[in-house]
Design brief:
CATH superfamily of the largest domain: LysM domain
Helix content: 10-25%
Order of helices and strands: HHEHHEEHHEEEEEEEEEEEEEE
CATH class of the largest domain: Alpha Beta
Number of helices: 6
Number of strands: 17
Structural class: alpha+beta
CATH architecture of the largest domain: Roll
Strand content: 25-35%
CATH topology of the largest domain: Membrane-bound Lytic Murein Transglycosylase D, Chain A
Shape: elongated
Number of domains: 2
């Protein structure tokens, strides 16, 4: 009996420690109801999310001074994943913009009618087992049209563009302006990037050269066609270093800077077009 009273405090102490540990574990945020399909707004424990084996998709409201890279890092994913699951053509996010985020690197696919695991595996170039394992599924028949599933390791490629001139300064931006020669207000369909005569001009993205020659206003001009309906224009050139029909890589030198056409000094007039409609290059320019 004396032995019992001696060990009783020890037992009680151990019980308290176990209870405290269990409580600490149980107080971790529960994301079970959020796995893949739930889109409820949360204030997540980022560290806990990053350590989870299961993919979790959440809503995120962009805060002031947040960018896509910092958001991706918080959740343990990457920029390609965030862009892919939100279909973001531009990497620029605005405060209060609502986006989806996930704690894994890959892609979220919404299942369509009559879609099978075989067609998904072929589309994303992964195995059936990879898809089932990533989503905790024993059989794809557990899924229905409209369900969202996670495809690990997949990168959705977007048409990002390099700066066509290094160490340049912007002398005129995209939008309405007073024309430097004609002095009237008209829409400027690109960026003017100034540097010295003969400065190298590089291809902003991979593509096929579809025009090399002179055009009114542009002077000597190169046009490159890219994927996904994009094209880029390079105007006021001094000389060309590519030919029509040639395929070029991003960063490849294609021309030298000049001042041909309607120009007041050496600079590059650079345009990004989507299905031949001019868009603001600053939304797409990367490094």
């Amino acid at each position: 009996m004396k032995l019992f009273y001696k060990i009783l405090p020890v037992v009680l102490l151990l019980s308290a420690i176990i209870t405290l540990n269990l409580t600490a574990v149980l107080e971790k945020p529960s994301y079970d109801e959020l796995l893949i399909t739930s889109l409820k707004p949360q204030h997540p424990d980022y560290e806990y999310l990053r350590q989870l084996d299961e993919p979790v998709i959440l809503n995120h409201t962009v805060k002031k001074n947040e960018d896509i890279k910092s958001i991706a890092k918080k959740y343990g994913t990457d920029v390609s994943t965030v862009r892919g699951i939100n279909n973001l053509e531009s990497v620029i996010l605005k405060p209060e913009q609502k986006i989806f985020v996930i704690n894994k690197k890959g892609h979220i696919h919404t299942i369509k009618n009559n879609e099978t695991i075989e067609t998904l595996a072929k589309k994303y170039k992964v195995s059936n087992e990879t898809i089932l394992l990533a989503n905790g599924l024993e059989d794809f028949e557990e899924c229905a049209a409209g369900d969202k599933i996670f495809i690990p390791g997949v990168k959705i490629h977007f048409a990002d563009f390099l700066w066509p001139v290094l160490n340049c300064r912007i002398t005129s931006r995209f939008g309405l302006r007073r024309h430097p020669i004609f002095r009237d207000r008209r829409f400027h369909e690109g960026l003017d990037l100034a540097r010295c005569y003969g400065a190298p001009i590089r291809a902003s993205s991979d593509g096929k050269v579809i025009f090399v020659g002179r055009q009114t206003g542009y002077g000597k001009l190169v046009i490159i066609k890219h994927k996904n309906g994009f094209s880029t224009k390079y105007g006021h050139l001094r000389s060309y270093l590519v030919k029509k029909g040639q395929y070029v890589k991003a960063g490849q030198i294609i021309a030298k800077m000049g001042s041909t056409g309607y120009s007041t000094g050496p600079h590059l007039h650079f345009e990004v077009r989507k299905y031949n409609r001019p868009v603001n290059p600053l939304k797409y320019l990367g490094k």
